[in-house]
Amino acid sequence: MKPGFLLGAHMSILGGLSRALERGQSVSCATIQMFTRNASRWRPKALELQDVAAFKAVRKQTGISPVFAHCSYLINLAARGEFHGKSIRAMIDEVRRAERLGLEFVVFHPGAHMGAGAEEGLERTVDALHSILEATQGAACGIAIENTAGQGTCIGCSMEHLAFLIEQFRLQPRIGVCIDTCHLFASGYDIRTPKAYEDTMNRLLQHVPRNKILAFHLNDSKKPLGSKVDRHEHIDKGQIGKRAFGLLLNDPRFTRIPKVIETPKGNDLAEDRMNLNLLRSLAKRNVKSAEKERRGGHKGQRDCQ
């Protein structure tokens, strides 16, 4: 892969946390996303000292960086009552686990308001994040709010929602966003042509500062523009098409931001190889130019970290 392109995939932790790194290395990932626990259970297995040590040793050996986590799908910080408190406690645990492993940040979905209304859901998410930051004071691990497709009562599907959440933490360096292309498209933002892409990304940057964009999820969409349905598809096998991904990969504003796929996969990672190889072929920027950007020499790139 050309210098300056941080491209990778979400990798399974089946068999141990360090296996995610080994799987990533096997398909030449420069960066990976992973779970730090079983994502479908409330009570995670405790992190053992030997597991942490093994993970850090394998990470050093592979050189993969950054490495970041995705939190459990059960967490809903926008919920009311007991579920709200349970989600806060679970998210605190997610951040602490990621911190112990030395991960850069944890990605989470801002949640669903469950009929209470978007405004209340956003306020509850803000209150929850304040509690999580307070409980994890001194940690270096960041928290990335992922945009959503807008299914059901989910918040975070509009630029305005993201802007509201980020504005509450404008001076908090640990809070940022992760932009998912499938979710972006499903929520009504077109990126399929150069003009549509530029309009959408300019609008994004009007609402979210570049230094707050911590990662991208590169996923095609099974469903059409504005469907509000979250269904990931292989790159260029869905409704978005490869042109949009080429535009994003070659956009100098986002070159140094890690990008991972969350596309369907099998045990042998053949699908990951297929998707990553296609994405790499779309990254046609001049190697010398990309290397200059990596070193921070490109005008306007110093604020992308």
CATH architecture: Alpha-Beta Barrel
Distance between the termini: 20 Å
Order of helices and strands: EHEHEHEHEHEHHEEEHEHH
Strand content: 5-15%
- Largest sheet composition: 8 strands, parallel, barrel
Q: What is the share of helical residues?
A: 25-40%
> What's the structural domain tally?
1
Q: What are the low-pLDDT stretches, counting only 5+ consecutive residues below 50?
A: 286-291, 297-305
CATH superfamily: Divalent-metal-dependent TIM barrel enzymes
Gyration radius over CA = 18 Å
**CATH class label:** Alpha Beta
Number of E-type strands: 10
SS class: alpha/beta
Give structural notes:
- With 305 residues, the chain is of the alpha/beta class.
- It has a single domain, classed as TIM Barrel, CATH 3.20.20.
- It has ten helices and ten strands.
- The strands form two sheets. Strands 1-2-3-4-5-6-7-10 form an eight-stranded parallel β-barrel, surrounded by four helices. A two-stranded antiparallel ribbon has the order 8-9.
- Helix 5 (159-167) links the parallel strand 5 and strand 6 (175-180).
- Helix 1 (17-26) packs parallel to helix 2 (49-62) and helix 3 (81-101) crosses helix 4.
- The protein starts with 6 loop residues before the first strand and ends in an 11-residue tail after the last helix.
- Mean pLDDT is 92; it is low at 286-291 and 297-305.
